[in-house]
Amino acid sequence: MDKNIQNPLKYAAITDKVIGPFMKFHRHFGPGFPELVYHRCLKMELNKDGIKFVSEFRQDIFTMEFV
Predict the structure, then answer these.
(1) Within a 13 Å sphere around the CA of 2, how many CA atoms are in the beta-carbon half?
(2) Side-chain half-sphere CA neighbours of 15 within 13 A
(3) Maximum Cα–Cα distance across the chain
(4) What is the pLDDT of residue 29?
(5) What is the pLDDT of residues 52-64, one digit of tens each?
């Protein structure tokens, strides 16, 4: 096996901690809320679980026109 290929399960624990609360919310309340509602819910859950994150950080975007 190629040593350069990462184990696909390497981040499984943190992935479950991030996606799990969102899916729980979505199953309970269902679809149709604005993105902001899901965003706030996820922020509250991540904070509750002590997971450090950056919310909506500034990211410069370039198009081919400006490259």
Answers:
(1) 3
(2) 5
(3) 45
(4) 86
(5) 999 988 888 887 7
Residues 6+ away with beta carbon under 8 Å from 25: 38, 41, 42, 45
Question: Quick check: 38 and 25 in contact, CB under 8 A?
Answer: yes
Cα separation, 64 vs 62, whole angstroms: 7
Residue 22 in contact with residue 42, Cβ under 8 Å? yes
CB 46 within 8 A of CB 18: yes
The per-residue pLDDT for range 7-41, each reduced to its tens digit, is: 667 888 888 888 888 888 889 888 999 999 989 98
